[in-house]
Amino acid sequence: MDCRLGCGACCIAPSITSAIPGMPMGKPAGVRCIQLNADNLCMIFGQPERPDVCAEFSASIDVCGTTNEQALWLITDLESSTC
To answer: By its UniProt entry, which InterPro entries does this protein fall under (predicted)?
Structure first.
């Protein structure tokens, strides 16, 4: 499965403990990544400063569902069950 262009759920729902340019301490769950633009596209996609955890994410139906809203709900649920 390919990521849905403009979804951004994986850049909003999970906490990220790795440093992100502009967010040196990472980001808490539910907070938009500072590198996510208004169209929900990663501004550092493919760049070396992109955190490994972001680069290693791969979309799947189990995590992303069939809509952007479902992806946000599923990833939020996964995040809350791993805290």
So the answer is: Puta_zinc/iron-chelating_dom, UPF0153_domain
- Running DSSP on this structure, what letter comes out for residue 79? H
pLDDT tens digit sequence for 8-22: 999 999 999 999 999
Q: Which of 18, 78, 73 is nearest to 44 (CA)?
A: 18
Q: Do the beta carbons of residue 45 and residue 22 sit within 8 Å?
A: no
pTM of the predicted model, to two decimals?
0.91
Instruction: Report domain extents, the chain.
Output: 1-83
Pick from 25, 36, 30: nearest CA to 15: 30
Q: Which of 53, 54, 80, 74 is nearest to 62 (CA)?
A: 74
Can you give the pLDDT at residue 67?
97
- How many helices (H) and strands (E) the chain has is answered by 3, 0
